[in-house]
Amino acid sequence: MTEGNGHRSPATAGPDLSADYLGLRLRSPVVASCSPLTGDLASLRALDLAGVGAVVLPSLFEEQLEHEAEELDRYLGLGSDVNPEATFGYAPVLDDYNQGSVQYLKLIRDAKATLEAPVISSLNGSTRGGWTEYARMLADAGSDAIELNLYQVAADPNRTGRSIEDETLALVASVSGACDVPVAVKLSPYWSGLAHFAGRLVDAGAAGLVLFNRFYQPDIDLETLSVGPRLVLSTSDELRLPLRWMAILHGRVAASLAATSGVHDSADVLKVLLAGANVAMTTSALLRHGPEHVRVLVDGVRDWMVEREYTSVEQLTGSVSQINVGDPAAFERANYIDTLTRYASTFLH
Predict the structure, then answer these.
(1) Phi/psi of residue 20, each to 5°?
(2) Mean pLDDT in residue range 220-243
(3) Band of the pLDDT at 102, cuts 50, 70, 90?
């Protein structure tokens, strides 16, 4: 049954797929996480047409910004010690100087002018540095939110976990206080006392938590004896770690939750939503299948909801979280023991 304008009437309309994330109303719970696809305007348009809920632009790295500042200082200083006009405001022409942040700000503005989906910028770093300035720039360029990507390996044996936590909290407070858009923090799974630390991050100003950051691990080349990164795309098997922590944190922290790492098909999206995530972020699946895969994910979620008579994403979100299931220990150590017992029983028989 359709109305005169060709739209389905409310009686036959499908379930409400919209999701709330960082105070933003998204048309679907599927978010394109940062990747080469989100750094290109053409692929951003394709993601938008496929129904993506939001896009996270590629990260602007702390090392890039530091290098950019050093290069700017170098260019500005060229010839200043020999040019007699240097003390009167001399500056060299910077036509050959390409600022990475300038291009990034242009990408934000172009994306905002083109896409229906909200645009989330990403900052990747671990020290306070000039993050407040850059966060403000991203917000002023039109970002709907900022994802602070805390890519840090605690490799210094002289640093305590508490000191690293305190430094991180100061960074989050600095960035979230510098701009008027919500800030999400993308974490690794390696923090001790993760549930407690998550609460401290929210207290420091984080409006959302993205679980989990997937480190690119180094590998050793046996021919050259050199060490270098090895990029391996994720699989659905990696979903179980964020799934567990979504379930544990849902209802216990006053922040939006985003699941990432291992989201490849609509079943993965549904699992993290049921566990308590507000949105499911995906990267590897989109790199494998292209932007159109978003439509496959969204349609799969819709079909499952129709079959089980769910009326909205909000209705199913967190319904299988730890605070809502009959056996809360299933998400903790008892699950480990039960798994080993079941496997041993199967193997012995």
Answers:
(1) -95, 125
(2) 88
(3) confident
Number of domains in the chain: 2
Give all strands (DSSP E) within 117-266, no chain letters: 119-124, 145-149, 183-187, 208-211, 218-221, 226-229, 256-259
Distance CA 97, CA 232 (A): 34
Query: Where on the phi/psi map is residue 225: left (φ > 0), alpha (ψ -120 to 50), or beta?
Result: left
* Residue 141 is assigned to a structural domain of this protein: yes
- For residue 12, tell me if it sits in a domain: no
Q: The whole model's pTM is what?
A: 0.82
Q: Classify strands 208-211 and 183-187 as parallel, antiparallel or unpaired.
A: parallel
Integer angstrom CA distances of residue 36 from 57, 281, 296: 9, 15, 20
**193: alpha, beta or left? (left if phi > 0; alpha if psi -120 to 50):** left
Whether residue 72 is predicted with pLDDT greater than 60 in this model: the reply is: no
Distance, in Å, from the CA atom of 193 to the CA atom of 186, rounded to the nearest integer, reads: 16
User: pLDDT of 171-207, one tens digit each?
Assistant: 999 999 999 999 999 999 989 899 999 999 999 999 9
Range of the domain at 285: 19-318
